[in-house]
Task: inverse folding
């Protein structure tokens, strides 16, 4: 099966909000399962089921995250929600392409890795800082 597709990096990816970090880890687990089953040449039905799980969990996670940062004095909340909406649409577009072609492309996996890394490190850590300050 090869290397794990995506590894949790506590130093770079933590938001310092345990609930959100745990949800990010679940996203990574689903992405890794999808990659591993893709590499193992799983059926379209099996891969499609995992893609649907990924979309569903992403929507759920973003909802949880938005409800959480709505409890904070987070000035970037509306921008963050727009980014979530865009990411969900892009993820759904990739899912629709898979349903049409039966293929998971390298571009799809690159999107997943880039999205999660850039989003957590560049966006999510901002609400983590505010949450830490509020907890102090």
Result:
């Amino acid at each position: 099966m090869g290397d794990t597709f995506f590894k949790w990096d506590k130093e770079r990816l933590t938001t310092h909000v345990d609930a959100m970090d745990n949800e990010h880890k679940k996203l990574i687990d689903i992405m890794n399962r999808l990659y591993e089953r893709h590499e193992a040449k799983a059926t379209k039905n099996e891969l499609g089921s995992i893609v649907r799980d990924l979309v569903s969990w992403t929507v759920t996670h973003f909802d949880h995250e938005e409800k959480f940062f709505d409890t904070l004095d987070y000035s970037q909340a509306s921008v963050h929600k727009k980014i979530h909406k865009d990411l969900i649409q892009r993820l759904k577009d990739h899912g629709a392409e898979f349903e049409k072609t039966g293929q998971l492309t390298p571009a799809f996996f690159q999107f997943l890795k880039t999205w999660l890394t850039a989003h957590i490190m560049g966006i999510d850590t901002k609400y983590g800082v505010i949450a830490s300050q509020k907890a102090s």
Notes: Helices lie at 10-13, 18-39, 44-69, 77-101, 106-135. The longest helix spans residues 106-135. The mean pLDDT is 91.
